[in-house]
Amino acid sequence: MSVTIAEEIVDRPITVIGCGTLGRRIALMASTRGGEVRIFDTHQRSLDEGLQYVMDTLPAVISSIPGAVAGRVRPETDIASAVRNAWLVVEAVPEHLSVKQSVFAELDAVAPEDAILASNSSSYPSSQLIAQVARPERVLNMHFYMPPELPIVELMSCGKTDPAIIDFLMERLPLYGLAPFRVQRESVGFIFNRIWAAIKRESLSVVEEGVAELEDIDRMWDLFTAHQPAPFRLMDRVGLDVVLAIEEHYAAVRNDVPEGPRKLLQRYVDGGRLGVKSGRGFYDDYSKGK
Q: pTM for the complete prediction?
């Protein structure tokens, strides 16, 4: 597909398949550029509740996005009607692989040939959804978190996705008040969910081992994250040689510490990139020693 679609989408709808917790939030963000958004669900109650959520929430979201214009939301119970002339179709059905595979097979058959087909799945790479898709070059993961509060969207190829589609979405999605991030290679869990999985798992371990009460962990988290930089900035501040030494110690006393992070740190340390104290670390924008 060519990105010339950018000139054609003004009068074409966005369709969201599934009107649950995330589906209705995706529809909300899609409704901030004017035009039409269609929401599809096989359950009338979900459609009604989803439509009400968008209508109730849209005014506040519109006021927070520069240049935003309220769109029209149309509920649909017929999938062919829902995707007619759509330029983007986002699947947000429950996390059951067989269900998602069936949905994508049907979408491939009834959606316009140039429509982008995206999965909001948080656990299934879109490469697992394309067995019955004739045009996999238009399929990708478009993983949302909880907009509008968390407007992050991760874009990941199915392995055959036309790169121009991801480029186009990286450019286009910020207009809808979204912050897109490109996943560089296929990964189960994508970017932030993998990071959160490690935090979640270690938090549970600390409590299970009797090291701390869970309330103390939550309080420390609140205090720490309120005043600290992001992970790679923080590691640069600590010093990558120090971070590496800490990881080596963990590896010596625990058998569950993976080698990959230490190998990455070692490459930076070997290159003299120690962080703020050497003027360069993961980032290059430090004055030496400051």
A: 0.87
